Amino acid sequence: MKRGLGLAVILGCLLGASDVPAADIIIESRAEGKNNQWYKELAGNWVDSQVPPQTAKSSAIDLTPQGTCGSRKFAFVDPTGANRRNEAAAVSFSPVFTEAGRYYVYTTWPRAANAAPVYYTIKHAGGETTKSVQQDGWGSVSGIANANKWVLLGDFEFKAGEGQGVVLSVDQTVQPLDTKNFGQVYADAVRFTTTPLPETAIWIPGSPGTSLAAPTPSAPPLTAAVGTPSLPGLSPSAPVQLSWVDDIARGQQLASQTGRKIFVFFAAPESATSRYYDEQVFTDPVVSSILATNFVLVRFDFQRNTDMAYRLGVFRAGTINVYNSAGQPLQQFTDRLTASELAAKLRAL
Hints:
The protein is of the alpha+beta class. The protein folds into two domains: 1-17 and 213-349, Glutaredoxin, CATH 3.40.30.10; 19-197, Jelly Rolls (Sandwich), CATH 2.60.120. The chain contains seven helices and 18 strands. It is globular, with a radius of gyration of 22 Å.
């Protein structure tokens, strides 16, 4: 069963430098990048992207630096909607594996990426697996850009030798996610590693076998909460004023002192889901009573701390993570819940 990383483990690793995993292969699309000999363009009119460096090249960890190396892109429509390029485009990232084994496969794109659907077909020992991905560099879908991070496509068995890897492709159905900017898909880099990246990585839902999955219910017994829960059949008539802390380390310290669970809300003003919880759920008398009685409340600024959010298995604002007083994950809520639904789920923890 997939397990999320414990909060205590995450906090303990924040100041440490990440090591490049063993058997790590990074392929970049430009000649000045890493292992470019394993990159090939199969179809479409791909062109260089280099200026400005901050939007033309991903800044994901271990890549050749922006300004030193650019990337390759396929531009299919301009912001006016004119000059539409109705053709398929594809590239491949195909390394020579020196030994057989299970590899975690990642990809990345820069800020100016603006396209969906983008297909990544992983050719591995067991056949082929295709993922449909949004290159949302401007954050037009959720309000949070997904550029400049290693995006996990999954982990797969590969044989030693050639003929395997990743094919990135788009067809005539590709559309810009942000119509104010150029519609363009980026072939920047792909990474193969025998060890999952410990940080700054995004998990694509449905990817098998990753240890970076979101928190799931955990087996250890829960610490008894401080305070008295509302009695069955009795509901408060007015919302309770909630007290939040904005530092996760402080929240865990308070939880360890009181025995309460930790309720972390990943907030962002631009997120409709985040505003929904603030305006319609946390103001509910029953929900606010449960939260005030049984939890240490942490309000996490998603936009200012995206790297930390990714380490905690959170990839969009409005998500809720719940931990026990020791910082071990109990549950994650990514769907938009009603007040009664959230109250029921919190009571069940």
